[in-house]
Amino acid sequence: MSRTANGTVLAAGCVLWRHSPFDDGLELCLVHRPRYDDWSYPKGKLKRGEDALTGAVREVLEETGFHCEPGPALPTVRYVANGRPKEVRYWAARATDGEFEPNSEVDRVLWLPPATARNRLTQNHDRRLVDALRAALPAA
């Protein structure tokens, strides 16, 4: 696991999106982690020496089963988890191919329109990324 000199846990993830197969509108992928019973974006701790973007793409594949095309960087989120500071770097990422299979970390995924995704997200700091994604993808 990668940390800064002051002990901040470093993590990365993506706000994974696609065009809806039903109406071509924007859909965001949220993951449910049974360990925490929360809804969030695919993300995880960086491996020692791993760069953030590589870690973000790896986490998307591990947690959702989808490959992705990373796009613009989104705001970094900082918070305290388990008594330790945590910093999560995010990117917008378009889902390409893949298929979800429940695993030890994630038991469900949902593809939701942005407004519905904002309401489903557990943490307030994750909700701000919905607007950041929409601003980063004006044509999406």
- Fraction of residues in H or I helices: 10-25%
Share in β-strands: 35-45%
Determine the number of helices (DSSP H or I, runs of at least 4 residues): 3
CATH topology: Nucleoside Triphosphate Pyrophosphohydrolase
Structural class: alpha+beta
Distance between the termini: 34 Å
The low-confidence runs, each spanning 5 or more residues with pLDDT under 50, are none
Q: Could you name the CATH homologous superfamily? A: Nucleoside Triphosphate Pyrophosphohydrolase
| Element string (H = helix, E = strand) | EEEEHEEEHH
Number of self-contained structural domains:
1
What is the CATH C level class, in words? Alpha Beta
At CATH's second level, what is the architecture?
Answer: Alpha-Beta Complex
Described by the principal axes of the CA atoms, the overall outline is globular
Structure summary, number of beta strands: 7
Mean pLDDT: 94
From the alpha carbons, calculate the radius of gyration and give it in angstroms.
Answer: 14 Å
Give the biggest sheet.
7 strands, mixed
Could you explain the architecture of this structure?
With 140 residues, the protein is of the alpha+beta class. It has a single domain, classed as Alpha-Beta Complex (Nucleoside Triphosphate Pyrophosphohydrolase). 24% of the residues lie in helices and 44% in strands. It has three helices and seven strands. It has helices spanning 52-64, 114-120, 124-136; strands at 9-19, 26-33, 38-40, 43-45, 66-81, 84-98, 108-112. β1 and β2 (26-33) form a beta hairpin. α2 (114-120) packs antiparallel against α3 (124-136). The longest helix is centred in the middle third of the chain and has 13 residues, at 52-64. The radius of gyration is 14 Å and the shape is globular. The model has no long low-confidence stretch (mean pLDDT 94).
